[in-house]
Amino acid sequence: MGFLDNLFPGRGEPFDSGSPGSNSIDLTRRRPSVSLSKQGAATGNLRVNLSWRMRSSDIERRPRQSSSLLRHPLKLFKPEEVQAHTQGVVNVDLDLGCLYELADGSKGVVQPLGGFFGELNEPPYVKLSGDDRFGAPSGETIFVNLDHRDAIKRLLFFVYIYDQTPAFDRTQAKVTLYPSNGPRIEIELDEDAPQARSCAVFTVENVKNELVVRREVRFVYGFQAELDRLYGWGLQWGRGYKSKT
User: Fold this and answer.
1) What is residue 74's DSSP assignment?
2) For 33, how many CA atoms within 13 A lie in the half-sphere containing its CB?
3) pTM of the model
4) What gap in Å lies between CA 70 and CA 52, rounded to an integer?
5) I need a surface site. Which of 22, 208, 222, 226 has the fewest CB within 10 A?
6) Cα angle at 126 between 124 and 132, to 5 degrees?
7) What H or E segment, with its residue span, contains residue 118?
């Protein structure tokens, strides 16, 4: 029993969480899925947020040199070598999108590219709140109206790099689900795929009236058309661009 359980007798964790008393669950390879229905979280608006932080891969990922400094303490005062320009801070425009298939057979996509922002209170019951191009703390958010869960067959949430610069390995991207009830669900995009341009992050499927969230974290080297092919959506794709504003 954890410390917080002693403070609040009878309080139970609705999810298996990563640490005692935490209010989140991490979906991992070993624990890839969770049922929203079984947790009483299959109603209201499901908020899905993408956040990331741009970073310098040399500075933050450089191996520690503590043992070397012990042998050669004067190195502490020696300026570090200038790295190549490709090792600088990366400006990456990550976009959050969602492929949807409804119970009536209709299919489509919600994403910033092409201005497909969706609708919340009418089909597809999936709505993108906006397009974050700079990795702001608020990130990008898609809402799903689970009060219409019977109309939803399956959803595939994905992330792609709009500027075509493969740099997933130099961002710290994370997708967080905020159900209407229970703890948040976190999925780290932490696989080693430096040349990938897109990632299928997770699915939501209506299986016998039960909404199940399943981690994918499947990186691909193409874009939406490749994700479509892998998951059998069958949409027609063309070249798209964002407005400059």
Assistant:
1) G
2) 12
3) 0.75
4) 35
5) 208
6) 140
7) strand 118-119
- The C-alpha atoms of residue 111 and residue 126 are separated, in whole angstroms, by 10
* Token pair 């089909």 in the structure block, residue: 123
CA dist., res. 76 & res. 94, Å (int): 37
Q: How confident is the model at residue 241 (pLDDT cuts 50, 70, 90)?
A: low
Bridge-based pairing state of the strands 33-35 and 140-145:
unpaired
CA atoms within 13 A on the CB side of 20: 8
Neighbours of 203 (CB within 10 A): 18
And the tokens for 107?
């299919």
56-110 pLDDT, tens digit per residue, is 543 344 444 444 445 555 444 444 333 333 344 456 778 899 999 999 999 999 9
The domain 33-54+88-231 is classified under which CATH number: 1.10.357.20, 3.40.630.30, 2.60.60.30, 2.40.50.140? 2.60.60.30
The values of phi and psi at residue 85, to 5°, are -65, -20
pLDDT, residue 168, reads 79
pLDDT classification of 53: cutoffs 50, 70, 90: confident
Domain map (residue ranges) of the chain = 33-54+88-231
Backbone angles phi, psi at 231, to 5 degrees: -110, 5
Q: What are 124's two structure tokens?
A: 């597809």
Of 28-32, 65-69, 154-158, 217-221, the one with minimum mean pLDDT is 65-69
Cβ within 8 Å of residue 139, ≥6 positions away:
49, 50, 51, 52, 96, 132
Neighbouring residues of 2: CB distance < 8 A, sequence distance ≥ 6: 20, 21
